[in-house]
Amino acid sequence: MGEGHVNTPRARQTMGSMLGLTRPGFRFAVASVVVVYVAVGLTLPPLELGPIGETAAIVGSIGLATSLWLAARGDADPIGLRPALVAVILGVASAAAVWWSIPAGPGNWVRPSAPFIAYTIAMALVAVRGRIRLAWCGFVLVAAVAAVSATAFGWTVGTSSQVVVRMLLSLVPVTLMMIYVRPLLEFARVLDRREVEAVATEAAQAATLQQRRRQLADLDREVRPILEAVAAGEDISAATADQARLLEYALRDGVRGGGWISPEVRAAVAGARGRGLQVQLFDDRAVGAGTVDMTLLRGELIRVLGAADCGQVTARLLPEGRDGVAVISEMRDASVRRERWRTGVGGALVAANDGGAPSV
Where do runs of H (alpha helix) occur along 232-317? Predict the structure, then answer.
């Protein structure tokens, strides 16, 4: 693996993405079903339907197109329960309305097939997208419509049964395929979760390595001159000794309070220690823990350090599960002022002092 390279996890696999249901080509194919359905109706000889029949045919066709759209839209896996239910009920009602508008007769036996072919495609999509039981509920409703058509609409049993058989022959292989394919999809999701965990661990390790390299670079740049002077037997002045002491504190800050560190915080801490303050920084969070708005917390720490003229300032980032995300304490003489930061409404950080009043 190259330096600084961190793998990124793949997008979450769904049945739609595995089978290409989210691609533009599939959307075009679904739209083509509606176009072909309309084209078939236009190429067949016209029927004398009357106003009510024409209205039923038009409304039913629109309902079928809506059912197809609901079954194909989005990439949720499984498809939402509400759109799936609407697709099932609206589709079968629309197909029944179109069938009812067609006059029964031997010359029209092919016409009922078109709306139910469109509905079968919609139910196949519902099954593929994880709602197999609802798809079979649609089949039961189609069987009921076929039975009514044979007994009340005047259609023959052969015409009515072909609609049911055609849908059955489509749903059975789709159902069997989903029974075998869906466990593979769940296994792929388990692998994806493990990959995400591995990437998070890798990122944490990379961040730790980068921090150590930065600390080593700082050590080489700032400590080497002092060590070389000691090795050469040179006298160490009081100013150099103070510099070494402050450098030791800065190195400890980078190890124990890495989350606080920024160039501005380093400068503020160095200035406060130069004025005689005791400053301690701690980062007690676990490696790879969730991030907080460190810009706000660092700014508040810099403000406290700039305002303090004596005593001790301690800043601590709290681990998960504690009451708050950070505490900045200022000790002066016998008094202690603590500023505790918590996550408020909307994820914004809110501070309160010892008495619980908002901090200034």
Answer: 238-256, 263-274, 294-307
Question: What is the residue extent of each domain of the chain?
Answer: 15-193, 257-352
Region 296-314: what's the mean pLDDT? 90
352 neighbors 342 (Cβ within 8 angstroms): yes
Whole-angstrom distance, CA of residue 266 vs CA of residue 340? 22
64-87, pLDDT tens digit by residue? 889 988 988 887 878 899 999 999
Helix (H, G, I), strand (E, B) or coil at 266: helix
Per-residue pLDDT tens digits for 113-139 = 788 888 898 999 999 888 999 999 999
The SS3 call for residue 323 is coil
Residue with tokens 């079928």: 64
Nearest-angstrom CA–CA distance, 37 and 30? 11
Contact 164, 145 (CB under 8 A): no
| pTM tops 0.85, yes or no | no
Q: In the chain, what's the furthest Cα-to-Cα distance?
A: 115
Query: Which uninterrupted H or E stretch holds 208?
Result: helix 157-222
Q: Report residue 164 as tokens.
A: 């049911």
